[in-house]
Design a protein that fits this description.
Strand content: 15-25%
CATH topology of the largest domain: Indigoidine synthase fold
Helix content: 40-55%
CATH architecture of the largest domain: 3-Layer(aba) Sandwich
Bound molecules: pseudouridine-5'-monophosphate, manganese (II) ion
Order of helices and strands: EHEHHEEHEHEHEHHEHEEEEHEHHH
CATH superfamily of the largest domain: Indigoidine synthase domain
Length: 303
Amino acid sequence: MSTLNIAPEVALAMAEGRPIVALESTIISHGLPRPRNREAAQEFESILRDLGVTPATVAVIDGIPTVGLDAEGLATIADKDIAKASVRDLPILMAKGLSGATTVAATAHIAARAGIRVFATGGLGGVHRGASDTFDESADLSTLADARITVVSAGVKSVLDIPGTLERLETLSVPVIGYGTTAFPAFWLRESGYTLDWAAENGTEIAAIMRAHDDTADRGGIVVANPIPLDQQWDPAEHDRVLAQAFAAADAQGVRGKAVTPFLLGYIVEASGGRSLEVNLDLVRNNIRVAAEIATAWSALTR
Ligand code: PSU
Ligand code: MN
């Protein structure tokens, strides 16, 4: 990507081997309601800065894949109606000179090309329920089989087919490591009921796995699953009730394709009276702190 625009702050951190964490923009534009999303975008960056880590929020701004947004860029993703952009949308937005909010897939793709090794998000996209009929599987999965980046997420939302998603990650040879536990989380909930083969206790251990991955595979990223602390999780009974309503609504309204994830998230925020939103923000904050720890360990290991 010769047209990649890397913010000076990010380029300097990279040149000096200092820790950097990429952040996605779809969560801001399509995953969180306005005006809370703008505050969140700023807060996510501040958490990193306070930990001595350079934030690199990724988006396509006026046709240019951008790594590290200025205030105007953050306002574009938070306040404007821009496209949700996955990897396949990038060449189109670029040629048309349009802006787009990058999904986990597109963020991982762009950040990896910029040389950034660690990325924090909320939840990974995955295999949708009913995918054996609809073929709806997020490009987040196949992109992580390609892009050289470690993504910290709170697992996948319980609106997805969680065991199906874990199976696909296995097929795609993407390592999945639990942070401090082998219990795979379900985004708003600490546990999904599915167990991982491996856990790591800290960022240093994950950085060592990243280096070994570099030695054994020519491509591909790593998923770190970081469960929300028990006292911050959503009440499981309310979670189950609201999710059932959300599925019924999506079905009744015939929501399909890339609109499904934003629809369900928006519906769930409304139907939970904002409770799911608070949990969502908390889990992203937790993921950002873990990503900062990994990026710091990676910088110490490779500098
Ligand atoms: N999960 C969330 N919030 C989000 C998303 C996922 O909890 O905002 C976004 C991410 O950007 C992810 C995308 O990459 O949804 C997946 O969309 P799809 O299922 O259409 O691939
Ligand atoms: Mn999809």
